[in-house]
Amino acid sequence: MTDPRTPASTPATPDADWWRDAVVYQVYPRSFADSDADGLGDVAGITSRVPYLAGLGVDAIWLSPFFPSPLADGGYDVADYRDVDPRLGTLDDFDALVRAAHAHDIRVIVDVVPNHTSSGHAWFEAALAAAPGSPERARYVFRDGTGDAGELPPSDWVSNFGGSAWTRVPDGQWYLHLFAPEQPDLDWSNPAVRADFEDTLRFWSDRGVDGFRVDVAHGLAKDLSTPYRPSNEHDLPLDGSDPLYDRDEVHEIFAAWRHVLDEYDPPRAAVAEAWAPAPRRVLYARPTELGQAFNFDLLESPFDASAFRQVIERNLAMSEQSGASSTWVLSNHDVVRHATRYALPAGTDTDAWLMTDGVSPTPDRDRGLRRARAASLLQFALPGSSYVYQGEELGLHEAAGIPRDLLQDPKWVRSGHTVKGRDGCRVPIPWTESGPSFGFGDVAPFLPQPADFGACSVSAEDGDPTSTLSLYRAALAARRRLQSGESLTWLEAPAGVVAFARHDGWHSVTNFGTDPVPLPAGHVEVASGPLSDGVLPGETTVWLS
Ligand code: NOJ
In the chain, fewer beta carbons within 10 Å around the N or the C end? Predict the structure, then answer.
């Protein structure tokens, strides 16, 4: 056994199992804090806010991509996996961020994007310059077209952002991209691709990174044999037989990654973004692979007691099976913020709603926030790790009215201007009540903020005990104090109420209905809304001990 590799910086209290019950705060770097007045958030901006994150009480930050990128997909089009986008800073700035986070005992998770590079990556540029059949092209998926003169794509596979998943290059060949044409897919059956990514994992681990979030983890292995078979990404089979997603061969790749992650002490953590059918998610989470997989089931659930309870039961059972702990997520950079989802009538198509600039149906914003607070407090009571998306701790709503000419999400163009996309949850967050960008920076931000954003700023909410920020701080502090073990016991509760106990009598009760129910006995640790006269009001969670 060789000595573990020694990283540049380590957290104050090393602990191999930190990820099992961590609260992980997702930073979308370009929208978090702008330190150099260019309208774009940057690494030094994040470092300047580490004390804020420590005060919030999070255990880790996950940084969405901050690498050099032409920004065809918000940074998920990476031109160089081992550098910082010069608009966002330098590697020295990154090292300073890791040191600052570690000094506050906050772990750092970075995003790796292995399914595709940017079309601006040196490998893709070399592939375009090289001939069909060359080793340069073999890192990607180049194929001849169909039709009399190869003028039709090799297959009918469609891109996640709309349109064909194939784009033709000047010499007539086509390349595969499951996302935008600026995101060519790598060929993971090529050993050169595998070796290079393992070096990328070492590069960031050597710099002190504690874990990785693995983008499109279920997409790396593909069945490219002909005739190409249809793919159905929205209804994947349980036997791994789709040609593009969730194939069994993907697990060899992650088993090899685990060896790399285990070269470190403590081993580096990893979490798969794998939109695989629930029973197959456990495969990615095995300790011999990434160790954890995202569970997006709460994020996809309506605000409903039985839906939440089913999701929780199923995912805790799956965690037991895989040996991982569960992950819980209500919002991230890809979906309409949960305060807004819950403000809309159940079943609202949020893409269609965004096309009305968020006016039809009219969201009930107070109700949405009340429910979001209740759902978040319930989430923090669950065993496993909990994700917080930047700004949700302020109770931010979706910025649904971004003018169409300012939209950046490739979905907007690729859908033929029928889907506005994900920019509304990526608007720079407000730190102060006024100013050119509500304290995000000194100039107008790259995406416009709603005029009322200041009311949800950190400074507006800081000293207000009823604010969402105060609720998150209180909840995360209580969670640290109370949390232990990885199980829960369901408690009897009236219809529409979800109640469970953790250890030592700590319990969480959520009234999903609108009518008040009797408040169970106990000392109130935290409540998501005002309690009165021995009742738990509707759409409210309370923690009792
Ligand atoms: C998932 C990421 O969360 C999303 O933002 C991105 O567009 C796709 N993967 C493609 O990388």
Answer: N
Backbone CA torsion sign across 473, 477, 479, 485: positive
Catalytic residue list contains 263: yes
Question: What type of residue is 100?
Answer: A
* Residue 1: band (very low, low, confident or very high) from pLDDT cuts 50, 70, 90: very low
* Concatenated DSSP letters of 196-252: HHHHHHHHHHHTT--EEEETTGGGS-----SSPPP--TTS--TTS--SSSS-TTHHH
Strand arrangement of the beta sheet that strand 540-544 belongs to: 489-490, 497-501, 507-511, 540-544, 524-527
Alpha-helical regions (H) of 356-407: 365-381
C-beta 175 within 6 A of ligand 1: no
Which neighbouring-strand residues pair with 143?
Answer: 174
On whether the CB atoms of residues 343 and 361 are closer than 8 A, the answer is: no
| Contact predicate 7/264, CB 8 Å | yes
The answer to whether the beta carbons of residues 308 and 297 sit under 8 Å apart is no
The atom number, within ligand 1, closest to the CA of 73 reads 7
Ligand 1 centroid distance, CA of 488 (Å): 33
Of 179, 214, 296, 336, the one to substitute when testing ligand 1's pocket (max ligand atoms within 8 A of C-beta) is: 179
Report CA(63)–ligand 1 centroid distance (Å).
Answer: 13
| Ligand 1 pocket, residue 215 CB under 6 Å | yes
Two tokens at 153? 């794509």
Q: Closest ligand 1 atom, CA of 178?
A: 10
With a CB cutoff of 8 Å and minimum separation 6, the contacts of 298 are 308, 311, 328, 329, 330, 375, 379
Angle at 200 between CA 198 and CA 203, to 5 degrees: 115
Q: List the alpha helices (DSSP H) in 31-152.
A: 43-48, 50-56, 91-103, 122-129
Under 8 Å between Cβ of 299 and 307: no
- What is the mean pLDDT of the segment spanning 249-269? 97
Token pair, residue 57, equals: 């009480």
Q: Is 246 in the pocket of ligand 1 (CB under 6 A)?
A: no
- The 10s digit of each residue's pLDDT in 374-400 is 999 999 999 999 999 999 999 999 999
**Mean confidence (pLDDT) of the chain:** 96
At 2 the pLDDT is: 52
Active site residue 525: no
As a whole number of angstroms, the longest Cα–Cα distance in the chain is 78
The CB of 216 under 6 Å from ligand 1? The reply is yes
Q: Which helix (H) or strand (E) holds 541?
A: strand 540-544
Q: How buried is 149 (Cβ within 10 angstroms: 0-12 exposed, 13-18 middle, 19+ buried)?
A: exposed
DSSP state of 101: H
Burial class (CB in 10 A: 0-12, 13-18, 19+), 430: buried
Task: Note the Cα 289 to chain centre separation in Å.
Answer: 19
- Structure token pair of residue 440: 């995000």
DSSP 396: P
